[in-house]
Design brief:
The complex is a heterodimer of chains A (about 120) and B (about 110). Chain A is mainly β. Chain A has strands at about 5, 10-15, 20-25, 30-40, 40-50, 55, 65, 75-80, 85-95, 105, 110-115. Chain B has strands at about 5, 10-15, 20-25, 30-40, 45-50, 55-60, 60-65, 70-75, 85-95, 100, 105-110. Chain B is globular and about 40 Å long.
Chain lengths: ~120, ~110
């Protein structure tokens, strides 16, 4: 199916375990983003990528690692999960830089992660 | 520190009436603003945007107003429909920088 997909949709893990959340888009968008949504905080940017092999930190990057070897994939890894990382994670993509202010970010359906 | 604020966590409106959702920001460098709509168990979807060179943008039933001096924007939905019931996020950015999102307002349109 065309669009942006995330997997898994739901994940329960334990403190200290490594978890990888997957994101795949079929539009060949240059930019991809990872956000987390928490009550009282809205959506906060974790990491973003301007192109394959180019990534940069967002507002809340600590405890997360990203990679982008292919344009269409942008996995997010929690190297040692903590309870504070319990959240809903959204991946997004856009076809142009936000510098011009004319782009729109398209979001995936989200992954609900619970860290016990 | 929250740079984009939505001070009303929820709003209820009768079907057919106007819904007004508000958003305030603190960074005077923000020059591009968007509204997203989010249904439960789905990702946010883009609704409408406005750049700082305008003070109003319309798209069908949706109008966004920008008051730069007050650092305030609002989304008007007229007439409101039950299908508009969702969480609405405003977001803002400055050139070359990330988007900052508000905490969201949950709109309920009562039939």
């Amino acid at each position: 199916d065309a669009g942006i997909t995330q997997s898994p949709r739901y994940k329960i893990t334990e403190t200290g375990r490594q978890v990888t959340l997957m994101c795949h888009q079929t539009w060949s968008h240059s930019y991809m983003f990872w956000y987390r949504q928490d009550l009282g905080h809205g959506l906060r940017l974790i990491y973003y990528s301007a192109a394959a092999d180019i990534t940069d930190k967002g507002e809340v990057p600590d405890g997360y690692v990203v990679s982008r070897s292919k344009t269409e994939n942008f996995p997010l890894t929690l190297e040692s999960a903590t309870r504070s990382q319990t959240s809903v994670y959204f991946c997004a993509s856009s076809e142009s830089t936000w510098a011009g202010g004319t782009d729109t970010q398209y979001f995936g359906p989200g992954t609900r992660l619970t860290v016990l | 520190d929250q740079q984009v604020k939505q001070n009303s966590p929820s709003l209820s409106v009768q079907e057919g009436r106007i819904s007004i959702l508000n958003c305030d920001y603190t960074n005077s460098m923000f020059d591009y603003f968007l509204w997203y709509k989010k249904y439960p168990a789905e990702g946010p979807t883009f609704l409408i945007s406005i750049s700082s060179i305008k003070d109003k943008n319309e798209d069908g039933r949706f109008t966004v107003f920008l008051n730069k001096s007050a650092k305030h924007l609002s989304l008007h939905i007229v007439p409101s429909q039950p299908g508009d019931s969702a969480v609405y996020f405003c977001a803002a950015s400055s050139p070359g920088n990330q988007f900052y999102f508000g905490t969201g307002t949950s709109l309920t349109v009562i039939p």
